[in-house]
Amino acid sequence: MAIKTENERGAVVMSNTVIAHIAGMVTTGCYGVVGMAYRNAGDTVASLLKWDTITKGIKVTTEDDKISIDLHIIVEYGVNIKVISDSIISNVRYSIENMTGFRVGKVTVNVEGIRVD
Fold it and tell me: For the whole model, what pTM was predicted?
């Protein structure tokens, strides 16, 4: 799927993968986030994804010119999960709207695990 906008000069089509990459870069840059998480169907343990596969931990859907984003993350032990989640939602929404010009309808943060060193 992709999101599209048109004007008298032409059209802009943006792939969900591009939006997922932006969301992944912003999310992994937030304090307390260890990385993106991915869980195979039927697995009970989430895996920490490497940089080149961060989009696996992100689901982007588009409906009626609005973008919805589901993020699956792993956080550092001892951080306030509510504060981190609010920060991620705010930063992802701002960055995507600013970079793409498309409206973000909903950002959902799913904490899949906590890393203890």
Answer: 0.84
